[in-house]
Each structure stands twice: as C-alpha cells, then as structure tokens.
Design a protein that fits this description.
Methylamine Dehydrogenase, Chain H; 1 helix; about 50% strand; four-stranded antiparallel β-sheet; mainly beta
C-alpha cells in the first residue's frame, strides 16, 4: 500500500488554437469514463488490493483486519471474512468454492469458504505475504512475500506448500498467464521475474528500463504483453516472451494497481494522485491515453469487473501524520473514521 503524492498534470495545451481543437475533438470522440457512485464502507480507511468475482458479482475488498464481500450491483456488503490481522490481497479459484487471502501481518495465507465466508485454514507463508495470484495450469496459489523476498506456492488440492521460491528482491504484484508461467514485479530492483509454475524455477529476469519501483502488474495473455505501473508517472509494456520493452505510456502519479480489459482492449491505471488513467490498446505494441478520470486522492488500487467493464477503486481521507518518534521516524498519516469509500467508474 502506497501513500498518495502531489497531483500531476498530464496534458499540456499547445501554442496554437488548431492543436487545442484537434485534441478536444479526439477526446470527445473517445469512450469516456466517469465516477457513477460512491459506496460508503464502515470502519477505518485501511485497505490494499481489490478483486472481482465476475460470476458471483462480488467485489472482495481487503480492509485492514477483514475482507468485505460487496454486491457489485447494489454496493451492499453481503459477507465478511474476519479475524485477520493485516490483509493485502485475495485470489480466487475458478471453481467458485474457495478464496485465498494474503494476511501480511500474520505471515499467512488464509483459505476461506466463498459461500459462508468462514475461515477454513491458515497456512504459514513467508514474511509479509502481499501480492497473491492463482495459477490455473497447476492449480496453485502464489503468495509473494515482501519482507522475506520469496514466494510461497500452495497446492490448492492438498492445501500444502509445495515450494518456496527465492527472489532477487522485494516482490510486488504477480500475474499468471494460465499456461504455466507466473510473472512478478521486483520493486526494489526495477525488474520482472518469469517463473516456471511447474518447476518453480526462475527462467528469466528482465530490467524495466525507465520504470522505477514497479508495483501493479496485469497481463494481456492472448497478446503476450505485461503492464507494469511505476513511479515517475509511467506504465511499462513488456513482451512476455522476450522481456523486451515495447512501449511506455504516461499515467498518473503514485500508481499501485493496473487492470487489463481483454474484451474492450483497455488498460486502467489507478493513481494515488486522484486519477484513473484509461489507455486504449491499438495493437500489441501501440497504446494511446484516452482519458484521465478524476477520482479521489488515495484511490491507488482497483479491480476490473470483466463482465460489465466497471472499475472499482478504494479511497479514504487522511489527517496529518503523528509526531515522529525514535521507533517510528516516518509515521503514516492517520485515516479519518467514516471516510472509507469504494468509487464506481463506468463508461458513459
């Protein structure tokens, strides 16, 4: 989870009136997105990743020491997984029966029932499991441990750990291609690693040129492209087979998540500065920014509903940070109770 930074500008008006008119016409003809709803969520504004189950029409929202399941049509909370310590992400199996939560503060992966929302099992992972993904080719869940710099691989049939994969640095978000390969951003090394999901061996490590501190990661599995959102207001597009950088795209400041809509050929970057960058995939190697939607400062994580095309973002308001101490020299700002909200973004 990252703190928001200063709001950035993305478009500079050209010197001539003709240039301005061309830009206005291009934007008006493009599909436009807007915030259509705000769903209040009780409790403190503490959150990380969001995940959508497009079949059950549920949004799983990590929320401090719990995970809320929200009906994507009504915005109502229909269930909660409680008794957790400090959650980061949720991975779902395709059978619709079980979910997997990375509980970073507990150093565990929590298995829960998606009908009753009851905890079924806890599996000890590495230190601070954060990003988490399900690989359908091997029926395994991969939890990427930020502090121990490794990945815990769990067999979803036996509910046991089958491997621990050492990584070259601090991992952020992963992505699986469904064909036996798992990728992950390595934040402190500005890299992507490629891992064989069967042998659990790292098969490649690729530098992300021009990309600082990559966080969110998404994939176009058909086109074999990886999307890493980075500090410096840039998204890097990488060839998933060769590791070559094929494009860089301007995005907002302070991103922490990215989603790819395969049906509509769109990429979304949620930025902590209060914008959602909408990018059109013209081809595997060509990308145009369609819009920077005004959302809310701190709305830096998102989830895509692949069925409807809707985007959900979490946000909250924060007061000034407490005074620094010797034990905590860089304290985080305190969340304002009652300010936690899920923003719904849809195309007009």
């Amino acid at each position: 989870m990252r703190l928001s930074s200063k709001l950035s500008r993305y478009f500079q008006i050209g010197a001539g009136v003709a240039g301005f008119m061309m830009l206005a016409c291009a934007m008006s003809s493009a599909q436009q997105f807007q915030v259509t709803n705000h769903w209040k969520v009780p409790g403190q504004a503490r959150w990380d990743y969001l995940t959508v189950d497009p079949v059950a029409h549920l949004l799983y929202l990590t929320h401090g020491d719990s995970v809320e399941a929200i009906d994507v049509n009504t915005g109502k909370i229909v269930g909660s997984v409680t008794g957790l310590k400090g959650v980061h992400g949720v991975a779902l199996d395709p059978g619709g029966q079980q979910g997997y939560i990375s509980d970073g503060a507990d150093n565990s992966v929590v298995i829960f029932d998606r009908q009753s929302f009851a905890i079924k099992q806890k599996i000890t992972a590495g230190t601070n499991p954060d990003g988490i993904a399900y690989d359908p080719s091997t029926a395994t869940v991969w939890a990427f441990n930020g502090r121990s710099k490794n990945a815990t691989v769990i067999d979803t049939k036996t509910k046991t750990i089958v491997a621990t994969v050492a990584l070259p640095g601090k991992p952020e978000f992963p992505a699986a291609d469904g064909k036996g390969v798992v990728f992950a951003n390595i934040e402190d090394m500005n890299e992507i690693v490629r891992i064989d999901a069967t042998t659990h061996a790292i098969t490649a490590t690729w530098k992300l040129k021009g990309c600082e501190s990559p966080s969110g990661l998404a994939m176009d599995t058909a086109g074999r492209r990886l999307f890493s959102v980075c500090d410096g207001k840039v998204m890097a597009v990488t060839n998933a087979d060769t590791g070559g950088l094929v494009a860089t795209v301007p995005i907002g400041d302070g991103p922490d998540a990215v989603a790819y809509d395969a049906r509509r050929k769109l990429v979304f970057s949620s930025n902590g500065d209060g914008t959602l960058t909408v990018i059109k995939q013209k081809s595997a190697d060509k990308y145009d920014v369609l819009q920077n939607v005004t959302t809310q400062k701190s709305a830096r994580t998102l989830a895509l509903d692949s069925a409807s095309g809707s985007i959900f973002l979490a946000a909250g308001d924060f007061g000034p940070p407490p005074a620094a101490t010797a034990d905590n020299p860089h304290p985080r700002p305190q969340s304002i109770p009652g300010s936690f909200v899920v923003l719904v973004v849809k195309a007009k």
